[in-house]
Amino acid sequence: MQRFSRRGRAARPVPSAVEAAAPEVRAAAETYGWAALAFYDISVTWLNNRYVWRCPAAVINRQYNAYATVRHLEVGVGTGYHLARARWPGRAAITLADLNENTLRWTARRIRHHEVSTAVVNALEPFPDLPGAPFASAGVGYLLHCIPGRLDEKAPAVLGNIAAVLEPGGVVFGSTILAPGPGTPPRARRMIRLLNRRGILNNTEDTAADLDRALGTVLAEHTLEQVGEVALFTGRTAAPDGS
């Protein structure tokens, strides 16, 4: 049984969310301990995004400013950098969903000025009754490239689970680092190889084409663009009239 908490106190891991996850999925989630989170914003959000992935944090933050609503779900929460910097239309009810309790606690504290709920979940499995559902918006930033497996398998699973807890016409947006392509600079290729060897990334076969197909399968409409090595996407579930 999943367990939840409100006002920033993360639920304890439970067998259905953590122990039942495949070992490689648990290992990917456990990458982010307190030390890694302490350096994440400067090493990943600022340095790597700008100089390795060629997609500055400001580009990703524009997604939050454009699409995040006051009834928001964040899946794969990281340090909450973009949630903390987003221009919200008001005090928001935000549900944080992740397999890693460290990231849940870290992010919940960072955005404690909002109404925060947390849930320990495996994004590859159907979500339980999340607090705050159905949501008007959902963010899934820099999660897909962490999950083991092919993008044409993991993306439909994750996006489908998110779409299932969105209201009709709800928006999902996110970003993911793709596998190297013809225009990928050497420093990015080296970093992707290194992070895949360490199990931090699992994206050696992740292509924009596979992501585009997954978005089209799950969502009523979507957009996809690539900035540097990063794919940025948005999409909506079908509206009440089926459009």
Tell me the fraction of residues in β-strands, as a range. 15-25%
State the end-to-end distance.
35 Å
The largest sheet has its strands arranged as 1-4-3-2-5-6-8-7
Number of strand elements: 8
Description:
This is Methyltransferase type 11 domain-containing protein. One of its GO terms (molecular function) is S-adenosylmethionine-dependent methyltransferase activity. InterPro entries: Methyltransf_11, SAM-dependent_MTases_sf. It holds the Pfam family Methyltransf_11. This protein is an alpha/beta fold. It has a single domain, classed as Vaccinia Virus protein VP39 (Rossmann fold), CATH 3.40.50. Helices cover 36% and strands 22% of the residues. It is built from eight helices and eight strands. An eight-stranded mixed β-sheet has the order 1-4-3-2-5-6-8-7, sandwiched between helices. It is globular. It starts with a strand and ends in a 7-residue tail after the last strand. The mean pLDDT is 90.
